[in-house]
Amino acid sequence: MKMNKSLIVLCLSAGLLASAPGISLADVNYV
């Protein structure tokens, strides 16, 4: 269970890191 939880957290943080550049790019496009 512990490994599963850490894996989920890792995936979530990885997704946030991957979406961060896309969000900043969208902000630049809106301006």
From TrEMBL:
UniProt protein name: Maltose operon protein MalM
Originating organism: Escherichia coli
